[in-house]
Amino acid sequence: MKVLMFGWEFPPHITGGLGTACFGLTKGLMKHETDILFVVPKAYGDESQEAVKLINASDVLVDVKDPEYKSYWERITFMAVGSNLIPYVGPEEFRDMVAQDELKKQVDEKSVLSRKFEFSGKYGKDLMDEVSRYALVCSAIAATNDFDVIHAHDWLTYPAGMAAKSVTGKPLVVHIHATEFDRSGENINQSVYDIERKGMEAADRVMAVSNLTKKIVIERYGIDPEKVVTVHNAVEPVEKREPIDASRGVPEKIVTFLGRLTFQKGPEYFVEAARKILEHDDNVRFVMAGSGDMMNKLIRRVAQLKMSSRFHFAGFLRGVDVDRMFAMSDVFVMPSVSEPFGLVPLEAMRSNVPVVISKQSGVAEILKHAIKVDFWDVDAMADAIYGILHYDALSRMFKKYGKTEVDSLKWENAALKVKAVYEDVAGIK
Prior knowledge:
alpha/beta; Rossmann fold; 15 helices; 13 strands; globular
C-alpha cells in the first residue's frame, strides 16, 4: 500500500509531540509493508528517511500562470494571517479571509504565488500564507505521484489534504492530534475551527488519538460518529546508547513538568501543587521545562510564593536534554487541562520515572500504572507527588510496572490499526 502523507514537521526539527508522533507512526507502518511519501514544508537534510521518502515542498516549482496549476489553485481557499503561532496554539489575530475571485486579480502581487516558495517550516506571522502555498504544492505532488490514500496530520495540512483529494479523487484520512478547543478552551479562533471542521467533513475517515478527542470531534464539530475512529499513540522503544550523565549537583529530590507553558498544559496547577508540598517538605526541587505565553505569569507567581530557590525554569528542551532531565527526575507531572493524548508521560515511564497525570488526558485511557488526578485538584496532585517522593515501595512499584507497561505500547501495533483504516477507505481487502 502507498500513502501520501502531509505533516508540518518531522524529527529532529520539532516543536512538540506532533512531529514525534508522525515519526513513530511512519516507522510502525514501514513494518507493515506500507510505502509513505511524506511532504513537509521545509526539509533540512538531516531528517531520518528510514521509513519514508521525504519531499521538501520548498523545492517544488509551481507556476500558477500555467493553466494546469491554475486549476489546482481554484480548489484552494486562500487565508491570510497576522499572528505568531506555535503548534496547537490558536493565532492571536487573523486577517480576514481573502475571496478567491479577489485573489485571482492579485496573482502577481502575492509572493505566495511565486514559482518557487521558500517555506520557513515554522509557526510565524506568515503561517497561513505558507499553509495556502503548501496546499497548492501538495496538489501538484498529488497529481504526479501514485498512491492509494491521503493522510493529513493536524489542521495545518487539512487544506492540502482536501486539495489533493479534489485533484485525484483518492480517499482522505485526517488525523486529529488536537482540536481548537484543546488549544484555546472555549475562546476558540473561529477561522481555525472552520478549517478543522471542513477537513473532517471532507475526510473519508477521521482518526482521533483518544476517545476524549473522538467525543469532541463528534459533539463539537458535528462529525458523523460512523466515520470517527480512535487510534491511541505509542512510544518509541529506547535505543542502546551511551549512559546518560544524571548527576544533579543538588541533594534534593526533583519533580519535573515538561511541556508548553500554555493554558492547555495546566502549568499553573503544577506551581500551586509545588507550594503545598514545600509547606511540608523543603527537600524538593521543582523543574518546569518548556516555553510559552504563560512563562512570565508563572515566574511572577513563583516569586510571589517565595519559591525561587526551589523552583527552576529550564526553557525548551529536546533530544538528549530531555533524556537527561528524566534521568534526574524522581516524579514527572502532567497536569493538562485538556490533553488529546500526551506522549511525554510515556517517555518518562520509559525512563523509569513515576508519573502523575490528569484525568483530562487521552493517555489516561490506556495507562494503568500512573496516578491520575483531576487537573484542578491541586491537593490530590500534591498528595500523589508527596507519596511517590516519600514511600520508596510506591516509587519502585510505579517504576517497575510502568516501564513494562510502556514497553508494550509499540507504534507497530498502532500502525496496524491505521493500516486497517487505510484498507477500509481504499476498498482493499
